[in-house]
Amino acid sequence: MCGLFGSLKKYKSTVNVKHLEAVVRLLSHRGPGGNGAFVNNSIGFGHCRLSIFDVSVLGSQPMAAFGNHLVFDDAIYNYLELIEKTC
């Protein structure tokens, strides 16, 4: 199972990047398929990826689109039904 985490600082303090990287290393056993982190001032996300179905780099996280960032567990259980509806 993937490892994911987030950090939110109050009172306009910033997320410590070295601390975030240390947490990624601590969780690396949860997802040896890759890891990543995102920091923007008071918000930080980290992810350790366990690649099972999609081993391409397209599933690397944190994901970014249109200025938004997210991490999630990649557990979309109804993916076959979603593919049928979009094709």
Brief characterization of the structure:
The protein is α+β, with helices and mostly antiparallel strands and 87 residues long. The protein has helices at residues 17-26, 79-86; strands at residues 3-8, 35-40, 43-48, 63-65, 68-70.
Layout: helices, strands, pairs:
Elements: E1 3-8, H1 17-26, E2 35-40, E3 43-48, E4 63-65, E5 68-70, H2 79-86
Antiparallel strand pairs: 1-3, 2-3, 4-5
Describe this structure in words.
This protein is an alpha+beta fold and 87 residues long. The chain has a single domain (3-86), classed as Glutamine Phosphoribosylpyrophosphate, subunit 1, domain 1, CATH 3.60.20. 21% of the residues lie in helices and 28% in strands. It is built from 2 helices and 5 strands, in the order E-H-E-E-E-E-H. The protein has helices at 17-26, 79-86; strands at 3-8, 35-40, 43-48, 63-65, 68-70. The strands form 2 sheets. A 3-stranded antiparallel β-sheet has the order 1-3-2, with helices on one face. A two-stranded antiparallel ribbon has the order 4-5. The model has no long low-confidence stretch (mean pLDDT 84).
Search tags:
87 residues, alpha+beta, Glutamine Phosphoribosylpyrophosphate, subunit 1, domain 1, three-stranded antiparallel beta sheet, two-stranded antiparallel ribbon, 2 helices, globular
